[in-house]
């Protein structure tokens, strides 16, 4: 990482001039409060993560999966963090930072709604007004999360342009910020966007791999052979990988959404997947140079995944760089494999994972020999928010797991 | 389109420059040619011609919608270059687009192939809203090679060292953003304009003010405040959008655009007279 905010050729600050002073101000605040712990910022952050968030989260041995795949499978239970996903680490860090910076208002985008709910919770906890931008399509497929944000007092602004998913929500939040930049902090939800966001968001999530390392040492007396995490923008991914990057013996596997196909329809501008690390090309989007799903002209493609949280045409610049250098292995599994992973973890381990997380379990199922003798999988979130989608998507597919949906046929049509 | 007319010369005449914006290909290729030519007839001194990008983060709703119409009608970088070649206007054309389209064009990595092609078809300069001075070196280098201008946007929040950095890189004119926010027509003109102009008073490039100018009186007010030119986008795009929605014949929409252009240019001239009477320069 150089001082200019680049990861190899990736990263940088490609934003409208109106935002540049705010980005310089944020860089200064990040360096003072986060990196140098000025005014005890990091101490307060850790204390609040413990008391409000419930950290540390457990590292759990998965009995059934370990037996099934004949390898020791450990689960890093970020789904047990307050709010039901890893997202609180970053949201709490940034809202607290905004408070230290003297900002008066919080805005954020959200895809699956996990970052939106985490930001709304953190803003309520720290008494800051909060507005969330969310694509219309995502609002429709993540209704429980929309209501959670409202319950915490956040405004939810629907974004109707384009396909109405995360990409459009980020663009719209940047527009709000360009108007309100002097009083408002934009809590970006992943390791994307202009510097310093990618390294700052990573540092707020670093606690995941920090705990993983310590827990592995205590429990196993060694580090795992591999760490698996799903990857959309890549915040849980970098959180789970950050402290292992220097440990060459630990394989880092980022599992992306293969969607319905890795093929691309240039005429329609649609990539029916979100496999940016596996198939994307270098370009500039939302403030950073990174790998993107784009057509040959450079127009950004509409991505797809059954999981809203992975449905994004870009990826964090640091992950793009780590893939190019060979340190992180990109992989992908399709919608069916993710749904099967969802049902399998629910049935065999009693954990209902987020559909995003389920991609990592889909990978484990397809590649049990690729993870070594001991693997840690980051359970980035819980799946309550996805139940409607899972009911709908399971009924229309012929999945390779035994799922009995007949209860709905006899329940009198309530669904 | 003839070979690249000089951008500086458009400002050197003894009157304020009128710089309208339209998205190329909005709502379709043929109508858009008529509309851009109407602006030239209405008194445009420079035209900012948008090349539509799918994620226009600096634009308000009016121009976002224009970009969607143009993309849906098939506008691409290659079609854009054909469009420029076909235009029968003799004022300088500035290409306004986002960096990814410039970066991706051609086989060679970096902005050079795009700039070379733009120079070849008659483009005079660029405005790239998502490219701050920090990231602009490769594009500046390519512009120097082909003798094209690179316009930067000075925002109300731009201060100190950032101004110096931009001053080193800018050529053609400087785009003074009249207020915070995204593009879009407003009913008022912000006081931030005067402050922004005062901060760059000693720059030797012409200062054109944009963001929110909708009427001749706004234009007059901005020129009175010391601007060398006015940039108007959304108020013109609104005319295109209304014509599209009401299915108005292309010739009629072109007439409305020409009339609006004339109103804005006259407003700017009026502002210059008032400034002279008030003892300004």
TrEMBL record, chain A:
Pathway noted in the entry: Amino-acid biosynthesis; L-tryptophan biosynthesis; L-tryptophan from chorismate: step 5/5
Q: Which Enzyme Commission numbers does its entry carry?
A: 4.2.1.20
Point out the signal peptide segment.
none
Ranges for domain Tryptophan synthase beta chain-like PALP: 53-380
Which InterPro entries does the protein's record reference? Trp_synth_b_CS (IPR006653), Trp_synth_beta (IPR006654), Trp_synth_beta/beta-like (IPR023026), TrpB-like_PALP (IPR001926), TrpB-like_PALP_sf (IPR036052)
Q: What PROSITE patterns would the database entry show?
A: TRP_SYNTHASE_BETA
Indicate whether Amino-acid biosynthesis appears among the record's keywords: yes
Q: Which reaction does it catalyse?
A: (1S,2R)-1-C-(indol-3-yl)glycerol 3-phosphate + L-serine = D-glyceraldehyde 3-phosphate + L-tryptophan + H2O
Could you name the Gene Ontology cellular component terms for this entry? cytoplasm
The answer to whether keyword Amino-acid biosynthesis applies is yes
Q: How the protein assembles, per its UniProt entry?
A: Tetramer of two alpha and two beta chains.
What name does the UniProt record give this protein?
Answer: Tryptophan synthase beta chain
- Encoding gene, per UniProt annotation: trpB
UniProtKB/TrEMBL annotation, chain B:
Which GO CC terms are listed, alphabetically? cytosol
SUPFAM superfamilies in UniProt: Ribulose-phoshate binding barrel
First-level EC class: lyase
Q: Which GO terms describe its molecular function?
A: tryptophan synthase activity
| Catalytic residues in the record | 48 (proton acceptor), 59 (proton acceptor)
- Pathway entry: Amino-acid biosynthesis; L-tryptophan biosynthesis; L-tryptophan from chorismate: step 5/5
Keywords attached to this entry: Amino-acid biosynthesis, Aromatic amino acid biosynthesis, Lyase, Tryptophan biosynthesis
Any Pfam family from its record, for instance, is Trp_syntA
Glycoprotein recorded as keyword: no
Task: Quote the catalytic activity from the record.
Answer: (1S,2R)-1-C-(indol-3-yl)glycerol 3-phosphate + L-serine = D-glyceraldehyde 3-phosphate + L-tryptophan + H2O
The EC number(s) this enzyme carries: 4.2.1.20
Q: Which domain of life is it from?
A: Archaea
As for family, the record states:
Belongs to the TrpA family.
Q: Output this protein's name.
A: Tryptophan synthase alpha chain
User: What organism does the UniProt record list as the source?
Assistant: Halorientalis regularis
